[in-house]
Amino acid sequence: MNKLLLFLLGLVCSAGAFAQNEVEMADVMRSNGKIYVVVAVCLTILFGLIIYVYSIDRKISRIEKEK
Were 34 and a residue from 17, 26, 29, 62 both cysteine, which residue would form a disulfide, CB within 3.0 to 4.6 Å? Predict the structure, then answer.
């Protein structure tokens, strides 16, 4: 039942992405070459968050083993 609900929720959320035919802002940024800066910043933030969560997980695991 949960899988079905998650599947339907995913379909509803993704329907909005298909409704947009053309994004003017993305075209302008792509033509200026700034889209790569945006992608680089987003990836840097994502990798930073992943590294942070991984380090916190290791610290918590170490504390749990001590107890």
Answer: 29
Instruction: Say what the pTM is.
Output: 0.56
* DSSP symbol at 21: -
Q: How far is CA 1 from CA 9, 14, 56, in A?
A: 12, 20, 33
What size, in residues, is the chain? 67
d(CA 27, CA 3): 37
Domain coordinates in residue numbering, the chain: 20-66
Question: What are the tens digits of pLDDT across the range 17-29?
Answer: 665 566 677 777 7
Contacts of 26 (CB under 8 A, 6+ apart): 35
Q: Do 46 and 54 contact (CB within 8 A), yes or no? A: no
